[in-house]
Amino acid sequence: AQSVSQHNHHVILSEAASLELGCNYSYGGTVNLFWYVQYPGQHLQLLLKYFSGDPLVKGIKGFEAEFIKSKFSFNLRKPSVQWSDTAEYFCASNDMRFGAGTRLTVKP
Amino acid sequence: NAGVTQTPKFQVLKTGQSMTLQCAQDMNHNSMYWYRQDPGMGLRLIYYSASEGTTDKGEVPNGYNVSRLNKREFSLRLESAAPSQTSVYFCASIRTEMLAFFGQGTRLTVV
């Protein structure tokens, strides 16, 4: 079974700073990986997904993630964050297991 | 287009009481999942149903039961609520490629 882990529990950035949130996966056959976002008081929504092909995947709201097989990583990036990106971010595998989440706080 | 509907949105129970959390989806998905979300622990899988008529345990099934009533509905039951079950519960309906659609959540407090 595949699992994912997130090591950043809480990240605080100023607006316009660049973002990178870490996600590592364990080997387990077919690799499908997801990033979900949960805005305060809301349910999880899909940001982006990787199934195969181009390892750089682009999602909504300017987010992207890169699948690096040699590092077992699928890190989430955004070049310039906004206050409205304040949320909790979850990495997930195709086993429907989620990481512990990373809370992002963006200061105006 | 409702997507995934959970009821109730909020509930307060006394220790030992029972209740059922309801979840329904209108997307004709085969798979449905129940998670609990606790601070610092992310989402933990309680039970899932890969198809109508089947259910399986997830990471934290103790104290819970589930019923996949039909393709649309997947309920979660707490037979004897405990304070440790205070949490936010999310139901998810899963599309074929393991893409999840979540309900709005149920905030449960057990006192």
What does this structure look like?
The complex is a heterodimer of chains A (108) and B (111). Chain A is an all-beta fold. Helix content of chain A is 0%, strand content 47%. In chain A, the strands form three sheets. Chain A has a five-stranded mixed β-sheet with strand order 2-11-10-5-6, with no helix packed on it. Chain A is globular and about 40 Å long. The termini of chain A are far apart. The model of chain A has no long low-confidence stretch (mean pLDDT 92). Chain B is mainly β. The N and C termini of chain B lie far apart (36 Å). The model of chain B has no long low-confidence stretch (mean pLDDT 94). The radius of gyration of chain B is 13 Å and the shape is globular. The interface between A and B is medium-sized, with 21 and 21 residues.
Structural class of chain A: mainly beta
Cα distance, first to last residue of chain A? 41 Å
Q: Work out the radius of gyration of chain B.
A: 13 Å
Report the β-strand fraction of chain A as a percent range: over 45%
Report the uncertain regions of chain A.
none
Shape of chain B: globular
Helix content of chain B: under 10%
Beta fraction of chain B = over 45%
Largest interface: A-B, 21 and 21 residues
Number of continuous helical runs of chain A? 0
Could you tell me how far the N terminus lies from the C terminus of chain B, measured between alpha carbons in angstroms? Answer: 36 Å
**Count of distinct strands of chain A:** 11
Oligomer: heterodimer
